[in-house]
Design goal:
Blueprint lengths: L2 H14 L16 E3 L2 E3 L8 E8 L21 E3 L7 E7 L5 E8 L9 E3 L1 H6 L7 E8 L1 H10 L25
Parallel strand pairs: 3-7, 4-6
Antiparallel strand pairs: 1-2, 3-8, 4-7, 5-6, 5-8
Length: about 180
């Protein structure tokens, strides 16, 4: 192997090496925040059922960090929601054509306050929503898998407070005159 070929091979392999620690997703509810001029108050909600307009995420570049620490990939079935815990699994139904899909919420958004969900490029494509378009959707949290994710991922937030119950006393009986 020539010296030049060896250098090219090493340069190519160096580009494949991981750059820093791999991003680790985490469970996150988060603090209140303002986006698009509207305040949002995140909360844990395993029973959410909501209808409204959804948009396709305009950000098609791969690699940025999402709100819960994952790497954004527009080819994955992901979504952004303003208030849900992350990650959460949603069953999304396009009310205009009947197509249904499950996506993972891993980011905050959409920035437009008139939208309930922002879908990755691939999720929107599978639901029949064109790039730059919107659609009427129904979203519902899939409870079992969402609770499993919440229990199985580390959380950067303070652990829930343990509240001890008051000690139980014995009930005493007494006869009255």
């Amino acid at each position: 192997m020539t010296r030049r070929a060896a250098l090219l091979l090493l340069a190519g392999l160096a580009g494949c090496a991981p750059q820093g620690p791999a991003p680790q997703p985490r469970y996150l509810v988060g603090e209140p925040y303002q986006m698009g001029g509207v305040w949002s108050y995140p909360r844990e909600d395993f029973g959410l059922l909501q209808t409204g307009l959804a948009a396709v995420a305009a950000d098609t570049r791969r690699g940025r960090r999402t709100a819960n620490g994952e790497v954004h990939d527009p080819a994955l079935l992901t979504a952004a929601h303003r208030t849900l815990q992350m990650p959460a699994i949603l069953r999304v139904t396009n009310l205009e054509n009947g197509l249904e899909l499950e996506v993972r919420v891993n980011d905050r958004g959409p920035a437009n306050p008139g939208r309930v969900l922002e879908l990755s490029r691939r999720a929107a494509e599978l639901l029949g929503i064109p790039a730059g378009g919107t659609a009427q959707l129904r979203i519902a949290v899939v409870t079992g898998p969402s609770r499993a994710l919440a229990a199985g991922l580390p959380s950067a937030e303070a652990p829930p407070l343990q509240v001890a119950a008051a000690p139980l006393g014995a009930v005493q009986r007494e006869d009255l005159a």
